[in-house]
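Handout, section 4.2: multi-component inputs.
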Amino acid sequence: MKAAFFTFALLAAPLAAQDTSLHEYLIEGEDWKEAASGYEFTDGLCNDAAGNLYFTDVKAGKGIYKLDAATGATSLFLDNLPGISGLHIGPDGRFYACHNREQRVIAISMKGEVEVLVTGVKCNDLVVSKKGHVYFTETPTQRVHWITPDKKHAVADEGRVVKPNGITLSADEATLAVSEHGGKHVWAWQIQEDGSLTAGAPFMTMWLPVGKEAAAGDGSTTESKGRYFVTTELGVQIFDPAGRLAGIIRKPVADGKVVSVGFGGKDHDILYVAAGKSIYGRRVKVSGYFR
Amino acid sequence: MRAACRSFPLFMKHALLFASLALTLHAAPLDDQYVLGPDSQVQPGVPQGKVTQMPAWTDSKIFPGTTRDWWVYVPAQYAKDKPAAVMVFCDGAGFVKPDGQFRAPVVFDNLIAKGEMPVTIGIFIQPGTFPTSQPGAKPRSNRSFEYDSLGDLYARFLLEEILPAAAKDHNLSTDPEMRAICGNSSGGICAFTVAWERPDAFRNVVSHIGSFTNIRGGHVYPALIRKADKKPLKVFLQEGSNDLDNQFGNWPLANQDMAAALKFAGYDHKLVMGEGTHNGRHGAAIFPDTMRWLWAK
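Output:
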């Protein structure tokens, strides 16, 4: 089969990781395990270089929580920041956050010092590039926003993405991907050298639940070889860099939700999902891009 | 047809010899049995057409932001006052090279000279890529989006962008019976999709190792063919029994399912099943015969 995959890859396009099936990155016998519990509505998964996982409890939480990669213990890392729905650590070592409850985007130092970047936006989720560009989704207004490293703010796309929600980057940071909560596509844009977005198109198509027209695409992340992991009503849908649906990992709780996804653990090979009251994790054969 | 009868048995003898050697001695890939015949080689005295690389197509409205290379082959027998048949090739770079796997311009030269296919202008198009100015980043391929997606987007790209551009300098037939489209793998399903969506514009399809699998929903074609009004298409399918079996589907089964559906619905079609893997070797070896079949009235 290796030879067949190889020739196919040659024919199709010389892209990395494009023909790997679900069966080749899940580990037999490694199932979802509850990693943290006792919350109302977990969200905003992100990680640091050591593989510590950070998350929020949008509905009832006090701030940013930390799941320690070494001990597996959970603690309140930063207090007095309730209502954050999206979180990412930028190249300057600060958190960038969609402070949904306050309708603003903020940066937060590891000590909790807050800098307000944009106000008056119903920010849902965000991602920060290595160059320091912040891209965030505003689900109800169908907008994708862009904040430059010198804090200039612009609407990068409007009215095309049906309820834009999850947001992530390709492993070469030349593509931005945004999932539709109200549709079935994951859109992709080219990120130009100045950080601007061009050539937006519905590049990936999510699998729909039977009888539905929306996939409920939500939080998204990227694996180190460039595959996109997108939470949906059916589970975590995985797309290769060519935009082809490669597989769907089932949800930890069949009738529950998954709204955010990220990699953590010291080797960045534990796939975590925010699934309502709990965070679940499972070890996989691949690892996360964001470190 | 006479030329085909002369060359084919000799080629088959070679093929069988290669196959038995491969199986008994070297266990070499099954694809080695497929070799090009004389119609795929430049023949003395046969007039040669001209291949021109066109300026890269960079301002597509259908696939905004993409760039792609494309080439036009014009046979020596082409006359401006007479509309030429048209054949489009997906992943055109692999077909247009005179020393490449398919050598379509050479095959066209030979068959047109013998009167075994019409005077045909070949249009060879690469899939789009999104160029990037970011250091260390690679251009993102739009191939799967363009080729594997169902719907009329790629047909519209041809009809609204590429064909009008090619028609500026060439007299292209607008008769759908005189227009064909060919591709390998995802290009194969793309070729079928173009004709399926726009039989008013393209009625001849050649698919090698076609991806009638669930990359982006293409596995539904056999079901659609069985339940839809019969379209006036002529469809050639080449497939190998050792082709891909992966998360998207099983290529040999998918192509046999396509052929069964085309048969059920009464389509003019042909499936050639070989033993190859996922590459163009078999399709290239039989390409001259495929052209004879495709263009025969």
